[in-house]
Amino acid sequence: MELAAPPQPVHPPAPGVRSPVPAVALRGVSKHFGAVTAVDGLDLTIEPGEIVAFLGPNGAGKTTTIDMVLGLSRPDAGTVEVYGTAPRTAVAHGLVAAVMQTGGLLKDLTVRETAQLTAALFAHSRPVDEVLERAGIAEIADRRVGKCSGGQQQRLRFAMALLPEPSLLVLDEPTTGMDVEGRREFWSAIRADAERGRTVLFATHYLEEADAYADRVVLVSRGRVVADGTSAEIRARSTGRRVSATWEGITTAEAVALRALPAVEDVELRGDTVLVTTGDSDAVARHLLTATPAHDLQITARGLEDAFLALTTSVPATHPTAPTGETR
């Protein structure tokens, strides 16, 4: 009778040291919930040290994919590996930690007590005071969690995620409910920690966060990857520029005439401001300045939001997908 060999221990790669295997590898991954296809043959590889934004509309499959990376659910087809091993094994060995948009925090404990309780769950962890300092909440260590703001509680979740010194940090809508200042401070803390060489995968509805902090942007729609590249490369997928000008008293007929110009894709009126989306901004600008009373022209490149809308609304459905109101 042959005995199965015991599983080999998984050794987390040190931050800043390149792993010989991808941090995350999904190959042909599909996940269904009854008749609904949440993830549809998705392929994704994330190399160690990358900061990757995972974007898509509600129902695109973002949260379902993240659940599989964290070992919270299993794919119906395909494979998911984290540093060359099963997600649950990677989590058990402290390679992976997550900051979710919600999570159970005990309101009667202090910030330090919460971190100490979490640290006790790991065989090896960073000093509690160190992670509180890295998360920017050392000064409120003795405050009860129930007295902390939403942003401070998210920073506490961040500190808890740092305790095992994970090689991969997964963030699922981490700044939901934060004000502008709180979001900026949170991302400053994330960026400072990422500079240590940690791999970061984050899903967010705030496209400016992806534009500002991600090395790479992955767009998903209907459970499939529809674009993958730097923010600049994704923006370039949305062709054209936008010409805006002040035109007092512009009429609908005049707007229709603008729409008929060559290379004009769209015309929008906002009071006395006209916005023209076009593939030839120079020609539109010349026309507005020489043939109309328009003035105060501005020409801007289309942004990540334009590319997001163009790329995620043009994917035909091949299976029933999650309803728009769901965030799976």
Overall, the morphology is elongated
Main β-sheet description: 6 strands, mixed
Distance between the termini: 45 Å
The average pLDDT is 86
SSE string: EEEHEHEHHHEHEHEEHEHEEHEH
> Regions with pLDDT < 50 over 5+ consecutive residues?
1-12, 323-327
What is the CATH class name of the domain at 24-95 and 166-235?
A: Alpha Beta
Structural class from helices and strands? alpha/beta
Strand content: 25-35%
Describe this protein's structure.
This protein is an alpha/beta fold and 328 residues long. Among the domains are: 24-95 and 166-235, Rossmann fold, CATH 3.40.50.300; 240-301, YebC, transcriptional regulation domain (Alpha-Beta Plaits). The chain is built from eleven helices and 13 strands. The protein has helices at 62-69, 87-92, 111-119, 128-134, 150-162, 180-194, 207-213, 231-236, 252-259, 281-291, 304-312; strands at 24-33, 36-46, 51-55, 77-82, 96-99, 168-172, 199-203, 216-221, 224-229, 241-246, 264-270, 273-278, 295-301. The strands form three sheets. The chain has a six-stranded mixed sheet with strand order 5-6-7-3-8-9, with helices on both faces. It has a four-stranded antiparallel sheet with strand order 11-12-10-13, with helices on one face. It has a three-stranded antiparallel sheet with strand order 2-1-4, with helices on one face. Helix 4 packs across helix 5 and helix 5 packs parallel to helix 6 (180-194).
